[in-house]
Design brief:
The complex is a heterodimer of chains A (284) and B (393). Chain A is mainly alpha-helical and 284 residues long. In chain A, 85% of the residues lie in helices and 0% in strands. Chain A has a single domain (19-54, 91-275), classed as MetI-like fold, CATH 1.10.3720.10. Helices cover 34% and strands 27% of the residues of chain B. The model of chain B has no long low-confidence stretch (mean pLDDT 89). The chains are: A mainly alpha (284), B alpha/beta (393).
Chain lengths: 284, 393
């Protein structure tokens, strides 16, 4: 090894040990807090899954198709949604699909609930956005396995940690698209709002958000899709559902099982995507 | 006359180094010098202008002359660096530059409305929702809002379109929505930032006419930004010409055309047809400047072809053309008078120069006399007066 490299490695910055110490500190001191949070979250998620599974599958499929019709007013879409869900029931993957659905919807909803206000804040304060940007990059590019480990140590196994890693991965998209939507509001209509005496709040609710709505809704669709892509990783730390099936198929090299669960995810993705495309193809 | 908006020594600078730029303005630096030295952009400098109630005051200039910048100081869309902008608010005046946020909001909601070049309509709202936007912001209850919106839509002939979305309308119609939105707040002061520039010429002329009609009825105070001098001359009761952020000349339309303050204004008006602006009053020679003969006779022209005998009441007692008695006829009848015998046309001070010229043409270049409302002789226009006014020499 050349002397410069040797010198550099001799003085390695202990980032790994620091991180370990930090999470060690958290688990040593706040373990009960994290566990209580995790248990509470698990209880809610499992409760939601159990509740949905009490409904006969075909009836639930009909209800989802009905919601699709309400959202988009499209008969072909409602029929398509119903057929897709019947296919999943036919593949005997209904229980896993409902588990995945709950996780995905919860993760996307939470990501939007956190990401949209952050995105608006960043759009109004360019300095905030400059600080936020590297953090968002980190959240999106840090390999998922890396933060699976600390999440696992803090929250244990189950649906709750699965939900948390999914949210971490999805929030940046919600923030970015909200930010994009709000900064792209035409200056002319912001000035129109100001010229007629809008307060900051009126400007936000009556001008900026309606104008940014299509982009924010695209953020929702993207959040759902990204949450679905996290299903397999979440399953690694104990979140149930279709991801578990795929991991099992991988472990035992079962092509048939993998194909079935994989197709179920695709069907779920298409159904959710088409249902949430508000303001993109529909009325303005 | 009550003052509606009063700009007092308004300087507007965009950029960080406000103090440095203001110091340079005081030394009379140009926009380019300020930009080079401080990196700031001079919006306008030392602008003083008084706008009275009921006037249409037009700010004119090429793009970048600071006209929009000055206009937008009235509702503080642009922040004034130094100076005062006094806006009438009921019985008192408010300095927009220094007033607090709540006062500013009230002014914007109730006193000063605005019409934008690119319309500034909200595309996800219907026409009626757009027109009611200002009222909604001001917290006007829904029932009252609906009624007022309907009234405005009828005023601009859009009541058939109230449920359409703004983007489904043509440009001219969209700007009518913009006008209705501004009228709906019943604000007495209207700011119009090149409202018709984005429209095609035919629609533009139509909307100008409609605006003038509405104005005759509503009597708002309008500050209107335009880069089109024909438009300014047509609708403005006062015109202010700006160059490089500074006001070059302010005056009535015919003042600008007859007495341009400098070369910039002269270039500006070079392509304007003076016939569309000037009236007989602008070109006449006063009776005291005419050459008087004996027994109350007055020569109307320098060539001494035509003379009037004026009695002690200032009325015309007799007329003579080329030494023969003549009759005097109103210019209003110039189109239908058969040409018989010697006649001299007379006009009122408000008669357009075009009509006067037609009268001269019909009477073999005889001078045209000017009578006031009491038919008293006030002056005359000879062919040379017309030529010098048209050629601006």
């Amino acid at each position: 090894m050349d002397p410069i490299s040797k010198f550099l490695t001799d003085y390695k910055i202990p980032i790994g040990p620091w991180g370990k110490a930090f999470f060690g500190f958290l688990t040593d001191n706040f373990d009960t807090v994290f566990r209580a949070f995790s248990n509470g979250l698990n209880f809610i998620l499992d409760g939601a899954v159990d509740l949905l599974l009490m409904v006969p599958p075909v009836l639930l499929a009909l209800v989802v198709a009905g919601i699709a019709w309400l959202l988009q007013r499209s008969r072909p879409l409602a029929i398509g949604v119903f057929i897709g869900l019947i296919f999943i029931i036919n593949q005997n993957l209904w229980k896993q699909t409902v588990q995945t659905l709950v996780l995905v919807v919860a993760a996307a909803a939470m990501a939007m609930a956190i990401g949209v206000p952050l995105g608006i804040w960043a759009a109004h304060k360019p300095k905030v956005y400059r600080v936020m940007l590297p953090v968002l990059d980190l959240m999106q590019t840090l390999p998922t396995f890396v933060y699976l480990i600390p999440v696992l140590t803090l929250f244990g196994l189950g649906n709750a940690p699965g939900l948390i890693v999914t949210i971490i991965f999805v929030i940046p998209t919600a923030v970015r698209l909200t930010h994009l939507g709000v900064v792209s509001v035409p200056k002319a209509i912001i000035e129109a709002g100001e010229a007629f005496g809008a307060t900051k709040r009126q400007l936000l609710w009556k001008v900026e958000l309606p104008s940014a709505l299509p982009t924010i809704m695209a953020g929702l669709t993207q959040s759902i899709m990204l949450s679905l892509s996290m299903v397999v990783f979440a399953a690694l730390i104990g979140a149930g559902g279709l991801g578990t099936e795929i991991n099992r198929a991988l472990g035992s090299r079962r092509i048939d099982l993998g194909l079935e669960a994989g197709l179920a995810i695709v069907v779920l993705a298409i159904v959710l995507d088409r249902m949430t495309r508000i303001g993109v193809g529909g009325k303005k | 006359m009550t003052v509606a908006v009063d700009f007092k020594n308004v300087d507007i600078v965009f950029g960080a180094d406000q103090a440095g730029s203001l110091a340079m303005i005081d030394k009379g630096a140009t926009r380019a010098e300020i930009l080079e030295k401080t990196g700031n952009v001079l919006g306008c400098a030392g602008a003083s202008l008084t706008v009275h109630e009921g006037e249409i005051s037009v700010l004119m200039g090429l793009s970048g002359s600071g006209k929009s910048t000055l206009l937008r100081a009235v509702n503080r869309l642009n922040v004034v660096s130094r100076g005062q902008v006094l806006v009438r608010d009921g019985d008192r005046t408010v300095d927009v530059v220094t007033c607090d946020e709540a006062t500013l909001r009230r002014l914007r909601q109730k006193q000063v409305a605005m019409v934008f070049q690119q319309f500034g309509l909200l595309p996800w709202r219907t026409v009626e929702e757009n027109v009611g936007f200002g009222l909604e912001l001001a917290g006007v209850p829904e029932a009252e809002r609906k009624a007022r919106v309907q009234k405005q839509l009828q005023l601009v002939h859009l009541d058939q379109w109230s449920k359409k979305y703004a983007h489904e309308l043509s440009g001219g119609m969209q700007q009518r929505v913009g006008l209705a939105r501004a009228f709906a707040t019943e604000a007495p002061i209207l700011l119009m930032d090149e409202p018709f520039s984005a429209l095609d010429p035919l629609i533009r002329t139509k909307l100008q006419d409609e605006l003038l009609q509405l104005q005759a009825e509503l009597k708002k105070t309008i500050i209107f930004v335009s880069h089109d001098l024909e438009e300014a001359l047509k609708i403005g009761s006062h015109i202010t010409i700006m160059e490089g952020g500074r006001i070059v000349q302010t005056g009535a339309p015919e003042d600008i055309v007859l007495r341009p303050a400098n070369g910039y204004v002269r270039d500006f008006i070079a392509n304007v047809n003076p016939l569309s602006v000037l009236t007989a009053w602008n070109v006449m020679r006063d009776r005291r400047d005419l050459e008087h003969g004996e027994n109350g006779w007055v020569w109307l022209d320098r060539r001494k072809t035509t003379r009037f005998k004026i009695d002690e009441h200032g009325l015309v007692a007799a007329a003579e053309r080329d030494g023969k008695p003549a009759v005097w006829v109103s210019c209003a009848d110039v189109e239908r008078r058969p040409e018989e015998g010697a006649q001299v046309f007379w006009a009122n001070p408000g008669t357009s120069l075009k009509t006067v010229m037609l009268a001269m043409h019909r009477s073999q270049t005889a001078p045209v006399a000017l009578f006031d409302e009491g038919s008293r002789f006030v002056g005359a226009i000879g062919i040379r007066d017309v030529l010098s006014a048209v050629l601006r020499r």
